[in-house]
Batch of 4 targets.
Target 1
Amino acid sequence: MRRKNRGFTLLEILLAIALSALLLVTVYSVYFSIARAVYATLESQELLETGRILLEMLKRDIRGISGTRFPLVSTVEEINGKSVTNVVFVTSAPSSTNPFRWNKVGYTLTQDRQGQWIFVKKAAKNPNDNLDEIGTVFEVSRLVNSFRMTFFDGTQWVDQWDSRSTGKLPKQIRISVELSDEKKNVQTFTAEEDISSAV
């Protein structure tokens, strides 16, 4: 008996190619949607982590404020239509530059030459030093686009404070930091901290 060798027909080959293409498109679309979801989650996680770290750093320094021996001075500056808090105070919270003594610190939001906002911390070992002249400037984050501190005097919240003129420290400080990522996702983080020596 003769055996008949039979190959694939053109229709079968085209059908197999179409099914393979459909399967590949489905796999790639699922892969890319999962990748986008993971990337968005990572970006959101970065905002949350940065916000948590910033608030904890600020609260730790505020907890270290003690007595009225050194002044707490906060001003509000208008930069390109944006209100920016500048705050300077002396804290007993340990720092990498001076872990065992009083440290003078300042926080503000500034712009670089390209116009990008940068949250910076200034620090000096000597409480009497001028931070703008002697202080070391640390870039804290480029995700911050708003920084505001308000102060509770016992009856109301105020935007600025100068213990040199009031002769006292605020009873409580409210911190508000707004962060945004490259995709313009925005999150605001708020915390309040008591100043134990003022209560």
Target 2
Amino acid sequence: MIKILIADDQTLMRDGLKTILDLEDDFEVVGTACNGREAYELVKETNPDVILMDIRMPILNGVEAAKLIKGEFKDTAILMLTTFDTEDLIVDALACGADGYILKDIDGDRLIQVIKDSYNGDIILPARIAAKLACRVFKTENDTVQNSMDLNSFKITEREIDICKLLCEGYTNKQICDQLYLTIGTVKNYVTSIYNKLGVSNRTSAVLFLKKINIKASEKK
């Protein structure tokens, strides 16, 4: 059962999303919020797996809420909702730890699949947004990292190195399971451990970081 929280300041949007998602046997909408602050408080109460978060909300917007939530609940997937392709806001949200974004005119079947993908650890991200995020990350994160650093500096284990390599090749959590003969829960635990050791909050930042320190040249002998 995938637990979902919906945060949007439009009542019609919240109710519409809840109606669609409640039809799925493996989904449970555990709460709805009308602003980012309320979403944060509900996360503490309901511990959702996935949050559908509107970018533009009163009191606390989606970007600020995503940063706040990811600071305490790194395993909670956050999908940003937007009416327009507002790239700067989307990049800001992703830089704060959001796991992807979707337009509000997405059809129901695609929405259901996207939620399942994000639950399994996939990033929902168009190429042009990924490119802008890459530039942002390189400018703002890990400025003190030198090219000579390797994974030994971060106490990365042999198994975590295997997973790091697959992350850099674009493997999803499910594909990593199949490749390394691990359960999805085990892979998620490894990925979370890698995030913590590298000091990043999401998959995109982890991959960019690993490529920056040249993981292939850093493998333990």
Target 3
Amino acid sequence: MRVEIWSDVVCPFCYIGKRRFENALSSFEHADEVQVVFRSFELDPEAPQQPTEKVPTALARKYGITPEQALQNMAGVDRMAAGEGLVFKQADAPHANTRDAHRLLHLARAEGGPGAQARLNERLLQNYFVDAQNPADQALLRESAVSVGLDADRVDQVLAGDEFADAVAADVEQARAYGATGVPFFVIDERYGIAGAQPTEAFTRTLEQAWNDRE
């Protein structure tokens, strides 16, 4: 069974939803027969490579609210994350572009398989939400990719060009074709969709239904 997860590495609900899905998968009887693939979705394709502001300021501008209101909203998300064992520092994180991160996630899957991709995805999420680091920092991206087993020279080659940019664009287009307007968005065997960071029980039910329908 194949589970595709559309997400962005600067999306707090993607990290929360990922944890809830992982909790459901950990108790799923057929977990060893489930392949998980991460797909790209850029929340802000126009975000700068060199950040000039932090997330609360960017969110305030986007939604027409004050930075203080943005911080209040983020605090609520932080509490939700804490319920899944995650400690967020997203208020200190810079607003920056994630295209290079997505390109490396495609490289990880192409050369290291789903396992390497999953490890890199987790590392990039941690970099941003736990450590409040710049998701566009190529030195950090390189270090993160190498830490999960990717070849350093190959990582440098990808970061220096635009390889896998077409794969990122194709993922975004596929998400739109499915009708996804945001992330996280989970698709099981191209038949069952789950939108948002749903409760663990919702993932459990859908995994079981998808498996039973295969049978």
Target 4
Amino acid sequence: MMRAQGRNLHDEFVRLLPEAPRPIAIQRWSTRRVVLLLAVVLALIPAIPLAWAFARSSTNPGGAAVVTGANGSCTQLEELWLEAQSVPSASRIPCVQAFPPGVVGALAVGNGESVLKLRHAGVDINIGTGGQPQAAAEAGSVTIRLTASCAQPTGNGEVIAPGVRRFRTQGPAGTRQVVDVFLGGCLTYQPDAGIGPSDPLLDQAQHAVFFRTREELRDALQRRSAGRLHLDPGGGS
């Protein structure tokens, strides 16, 4: 009946308003919207290896998930971020600054620890459940383990880097043990028992390991993600 009378209620109600409402833009794809979406995807790329590694390790609580292609190098930020998240209290994150000739590394991360294994090139080492080496008897390798704490060594130790103190002790059966202690973390170097090549490899491992600060890695992640990702979202140290 209203239409038959030629009346448009919508227009009449709009005229009664103090001012005309602003038109609502229809959400459509545009060049600007596509560019913004691509920028968000690129910013989230650093989170992909972190999420994948921890998804695999979560199926085995307390174990370690091997990070594909990871060798613990100080230039691989994604690996260092994984290590930092595996031990949220650690103020220093270990990495290998320069690999000794003929030595390669393999990194595994888990809930509460990261395991870096250095071995002589040409000898395969598999890191099994809990970060334990398999077929170690043929390898001659050194296991470098990052944890939140360890048995406190005796003595004063040696300052090898800002905030890092190293202790050297004799373990059972004459084996050598090396421990690096720093705020919120501990790094142990464990050579395979009874393996000749492990002794020089232990010395090489001590000289090869370098420490990056948690603050440095936190800032690098924020820069890489344009502030969208945080190393310690829960406010860790």
